[in-house]
Amino acid sequence: MHLREITDANRDAVRALRVRRDQKQFVASVSKSLKDATKSPEANPWYRAVYRGDEPVGFVMLSWKPPAGPYQGCHFIWRLLVDKRHQGQGIGREALTQIAALVRADGATELLTSYDPGDGEPWPFYQKFGFEPTGEIDDGEIVLRLAFPSQ
After folding, report:
1. Distances, alpha carbon 33 to alpha carbons 29, 89, 119, 135, in Å
2. Which of 44, 66, 82, 123 has the lowest tally of Cβ within 10 angstroms?
3. Three-state DSSP state, 48
4. Model-level pTM?
């Protein structure tokens, strides 16, 4: 599994990735995510396709140390999705492992994300990985932190 830049050659295949119907309330589509990235350059969006071999199986987008705003200077997972056909195979966990390594290599002491609470929410996934609630709520979403031990 690896992360790959989205280019004209793979954009349509990546945009075709879909979560299960019951997950749509928790994560936006790749198309909406790419539009949000274009509309919010101040968030310093960084996004990649998640590949297994030569096949796109997921998508991730971070706000990478934005220069201003509530997450100024932080690494914040804005979107993470694994296509419905590839869920339950460890792809999300492996993508998160690679993202955490990249962020840590960038000098970060933590990685942030948030989720909208509800039936089927992604909290169990993040909790198993080691994320903990910060106690903050951002636009109705619960903010989580993955702290990196000092090296």
Report:
1. 6, 23, 23, 26
2. 123
3. strand
4. 0.92
CATH superfamily of 2-147: Gcn5-related N-acetyltransferase (GNAT) (3.40.630.30)
Q: How many residues comprise the chain? A: 151
The stretch 27-53 carries a mean pLDDT of 95
The ranges assigned to domains in the chain are 2-147
Amino acid at position 54, single letter:
D
In order of 29, 102, 112, the CA distances from 20 in angstroms are 11, 28, 24
Separation CA 54–CA 116 (nearest Å) = 32
Report the amino acid identity of residue 146: L
